[in-house]
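Protocol step 4 of 5: obtain the predicted structure for the target chain.
Materials: sequence only (see below). No template structures provided, no constraints applied. The aim of this step is simply to have a reference model before the mutagenesis design in step 5. Sequence pasted as it appears in the construct record:
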Amino acid sequence: MTHLVFATNNLNKLKEVQVLIPKTIKLLSLKDIGCFEDIPETKETIEGNAFEKAQFVKTNYGYDCFADDTGLEVDALNGAPGVYSARYAGPQRDAVNNMDLLLKNLKFADSRSAQFKTVIALSLNSKLSNFTGICKGHITREKYGSKGFGYDPIFKPTGYDETFAEMDLSIKNQIGHRGKAVKQLVNFLNTLS
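Step 4 output (structure tokens):
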């Protein structure tokens, strides 16, 4: 069985991805490998941060690894919060504060179109690969739903009447940015076995 580390401390992400990974791969968390330090995210792009995290685990712990970085890109804000999505309202990374600031900044915006973008960087057998998933939609005027995390209560994907926070996880995984990127990762991993 192949062991692969998912470089995240976010248990919600781990749970979302675990159900999509083939049974032939044992998914390990950072806790499983004894990594309790903050992994650097110093790059100016979502892609750069994902690669930085994957390389950090490979270099410092020796495990094959994949890492993701996700950003919410809002058209009326010229792509913000983007790479700064998790710390949009400050370094405390508080989802409620982030959503409140975003809604405030969009109060008078005509366009509320946005997209979630996830990039997964894979460091496997000394090779780097990346996979990108995008989900288009718009920002609602208030929060709806209690499922999910991050900006899910204010993001309604195109063609759906519910926010991510109102959806069943199986639907979110099918249409969502992370699910799309993970499917590409899984397809790639399946070609190796």
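Step 4 remarks: The chain is about 30% helix and 25% strand. The domain at 2-192 is CATH 3.90.950.10 (Maf protein).
Proceed to step 5.
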